Amino acid sequence: xxxxxxxxxxxxxxxxxxxxxxxxxxxxxxxxxxxxxxxxxxxxxxxxxxxxxxxxxxxxxxxxxxxxxxxxxxxxxxxxxxxxxxxxxxxxxxxxxxxxxxxxxxxxxxxxxxxxxxxxxxxxxxxxxxxxxxxxxxxxxxxxxxxxxxxxxxxxxxxxxxxxxxxxxxxxxxxxxxxxxxxxxxxxxxxxxxxxxxxxxxxxxxxxxxxxxxxxxxxxxxxxxxxxxxxxxxxxxxxxxxxxxxxxxxxxxxxxxxxxxxxxxxxxxxxxxxxxxxxxxxxxxxxxxxxxxxxxxxxxxxxxxxxxxxxxxxxxxxxxxxxxxxxxxxxxxxxxxxxxxxxxxxxxxxxxxxxxxxxxxxxxxxxxxxxxxxxxxxxxxxxxxxxxxxxxxxxxxxxxxxxxx
Amino acid sequence: xxxxxxxxxxxxxxxxxxxxxxxxxxxxxxxxxxxxxxxxxxxxxxxxxxxxxxxxxxxxxxxxxxxxxxxxxxxxxxxxxxxxxxxxxxxxxxxxxxxxxxxxxxxxxxxxxxxxxxxxxxxxxxxxxxxxxxxxxxxxxxxxxxxxxxxxxxxxxxxxxxxxxxxxxxxxxxx
Lengths: 405, 175
Description:
The structure holds two protein chains of two kinds. Chain A has 14 helices and ten strands. By secondary structure, chain A is of the alpha+beta class. Chain A has one domain: Cytochrome-c3 Hydrogenase, chain B. In chain A, the strands form four sheets. Chain A has a three-stranded antiparallel sheet with strand order 3-4-5. Chain A has a three-stranded antiparallel sheet with strand order 8-9-10. In chain A, about 50% of the residues are buried. In chain B, the strands form two sheets. In chain B, strands 1-2-5-4-3 form a five-stranded mixed sheet. Chain B has a two-stranded parallel sheet with strand order 6-7. The radius of gyration of chain B is 20 Å and the shape is elongated. Chain B is built from four helices and seven strands, in the order αββαββββαβα. The interface between A and B is large, with 45 and 39 residues.
């Protein structure tokens, strides 16, 4: 019943007078290559059908052909805004699978970089979300602080975005005194900056009108849609893996999990703003209580070639290379499966591994929060206006690299 | 309640459908027959507050060195936010009839997870509202995460050929 014009916009005939619009994949407000097929009645969305897969790189297939250590670089490319958090998530999962111990200093460094990644990810979220809704100034302020964190990452591991900083059994390089001083300065100054963002936004009538009451999700609905992270906590469900199943050194940290009530766009925004403060607190605790000691476990399979006294390097015919061989002949390539989830800025990032003793994952499944959040868009986006859909996409905080994998 | 006891309760309730219970690294895996999967997950969700579906994925056992029952498996990770317990269900699915009932009725979020499993493994989910490919294009051949899927093909995806033709046509214009 439809005829198609050259622009691929379907024009309806007769009784079916719905207007069909393909928003994306190059739309600036979709934060990547997300396409949303909309069926419109005027400006109201009758049907919302998100299409993903433009950034599918087959990480799960790739991972089956690489060793555990080699796969760390793949995790950088999942949520490229908070690569550190993905690195930690992956390594925590593999360490559980292969029973590798991590020394306390490395645990603290991991918490530190995770929270730095959380702050830098939330800063980018706030910047782009505000830009989508029309508050231009916040964008520039947020990038100012984000730059500080990215420079710290560069000093720590030589890379601003694709860090590959963690190693199985620890982290790659120790934090220097200079990094700690700079981080301390950042931690001291950051609360004032949060207040600054809030003055820019919370008194802005346009912002309030465009977020309060928009895209409300009830607590039950949020659990039903498998939302996680701040998007779930905005609806009043207290689920944070850092407290439920503490990993790294989170069990030694003192922090609260901010939970919203109303579940609308504004509640999710408030949740993330409070997370800024909590993350800042955690960073402060890390600086104060950073224990001395080694940063790599004694039995860590190392990615870097030789050079540790007493470490015997043998060619492993099964694993196919000498880069990853274990020191004390303990058979870490054992069979079994584990599911380990970590709290990344977007929500719950889970890795499900099956090992069959070959030194490579037999199967690696990545449970990415963005994939489920975009899936939830079909339900949340129904019946709202197009302009509100932009606010909802922004508030769910999706990254397509993580969604498509 | 400990996950191992929840698994025992599940066995009491569905004695014929439990194929085995394994504990590894503190995580409990229960192998179950696929026939009553929806009822079992419903039981866990209502009776044991397993209200969070962590993940749902498929596995192809074709190259597995260990013993396995059927070629495919569908894995369900369930988590109880109240009791903080994790339980894994594993349902073997035969190669000849790769199908299992959908749990979209229990979690709306399962919709995309099942579509992904269908796309990458070719496992069909009965009663799924919209079982289409999701990560690969609609006209894609084969299911990439199967172990016998060729890593290199001898031809390009048809959509890519069309794209190249379009690009060739555009060459007549000077941009």
